[in-house]
Amino acid sequence: MANITNTLSNLIHSTAFFNLTWGNYVMILVALVFLYLAIRHGFEPLLLVPIAFGMLLVNIYPDIMADPASTSNGVGGLLHYFYILDEWSILPSLIFLGVGAMTDFGPLIANPKSFLLGAAAQLGIYSAYFLAIFLGFNGKAAAAISIIGGADGPTSIFLAGKLHQTGLMGPIAVAAYSYMSLVPIIQPPIMKLLTTEEERKIKMEQLRPVSKTEKILFPIIITIVVCLILPTTAPLVGMLMLGNLFRECGVVKQLSETASNALMYIVVILLGTSVGASTSAENFLNIATLKIVVLGLVAFAVGTAGGVLFGKLMCKLSGGKINPLIGSAGVSAVPMAARVSQKVGAEADPTNFLLMHAMGPNVAGVIGTAVAAGTFMAIFGV
């Protein structure tokens, strides 16, 4: 009888109920909220579902992220090995390969001025950098946090790993992806506040046709120019442009399809679950995380405002030919930010079609955020 009692007692005490803290329950609730937003409201579900589920798993069973050095048999948790691929910057770079294979750079080639709007939207990154230092973060941590302003999750993870800020990678990644998913909620009020109804109604001229030769040369030239100036951007810009070259050259259809579909989705699963699993209660529920979330929001808002305000300047200089709304797409969240520009413009005038015009700054923002990350890496000698 005693053996049966002891066995039952051991089974009961081995359940998670006896091992979880109040913080774990809070994080489980947060994970459920993220799952609700992703499934019910469609907020970046491809990213938010695996991130939320990874968050759920690690707060029920922390050993799923166990380091091999801390285990009796020298074998780490499943998601620990996924997470190593984040730290080594492998998964973020592969995400860029897929993004390049999925993205049409034609609008950017047709309207090179879009580069300026994409650059202006990076204002949020540099503003957040100095604000993070003011709030007590060291230079490398401030740089890793500030990239959230680009609304680019893979770049945020990439830079945090390169600058050895792995302790902050979870909160940074969750904040970056959360703001990416909330683009349709955060951006429109800022866009409407900074523009007049007349400006939002501006119709832009149809973009010129872009030849196949231009589309093939573009990723090659951008790789050479950007990587010669900032070699540290090669893992991101290089993979982005390689994916786009797969798409445009027309002779490697299988590689293009694999990079934009099967490989992309495999990497999203690995990256999403491992990032979510880095948000255990002890790592996530602290003052530093709260600061990161606030800094990310400030960076994102300032970046949106910077793009719109520069769009207003270009509107004036062009004699009213450029709709300032497309500047908000420079924050890089492809293609959601461009869709938001289209949506806000269509609210002012249902016959206004800004999507393709907004894709130019949108793609430029991806490149601009990668350049910002490379600049920080060069500054800190990484």
**Main sheet characteristics:** none
Question: What is the percentage of strand-forming residues?
Answer: under 5%
Compute the gyration radius: what is it? Answer: 22 Å
Stretches where pLDDT is under 50 for at least 5 consecutive residues are none
| Helix proportion range | over 70%
Assembly form of the protein? single chain
Q: Which H/E pattern describes the elements? A: HHHHHHHHHHHHHHHHHHHHH
Shape: globular
Structural class: mainly alpha
Annotation field: number of helices: 21
Would you mind describing this structure in some detail?
This protein has 382 residues and is an all-alpha fold. 72% of the residues lie in helices and 0% in strands. It has helices at 2-13, 22-41, 45-60, 78-87, 90-102, 106-110, 114-120, 123-134, 139-146, 153-162, 166-181, 183-194, 197-200, 212-229, 234-249, 253-260, 262-276, 281-284, 287-317, 336-348, 355-379. It is globular. The model has no long low-confidence stretch (mean pLDDT 90).
SSE blueprint and pairings:
Layout: H1 2-13, H2 22-41, H3 45-60, H4 78-87, H5 90-102, H6 106-110, H7 114-120, H8 123-134, H9 139-146, H10 153-162, H11 166-181, H12 183-194, H13 197-200, H14 212-229, H15 234-249, H16 253-260, H17 262-276, H18 281-284, H19 287-317, H20 336-348, H21 355-379
Helix pairs in contact: 2-3, 3-11, 3-17, 4-17, 5-10, 5-15, 5-16, 5-17, 7-19, 7-21, 8-9, 8-19, 9-10, 10-11, 10-21, 11-19, 12-19, 12-20, 14-15, 15-16, 16-17, 20-21
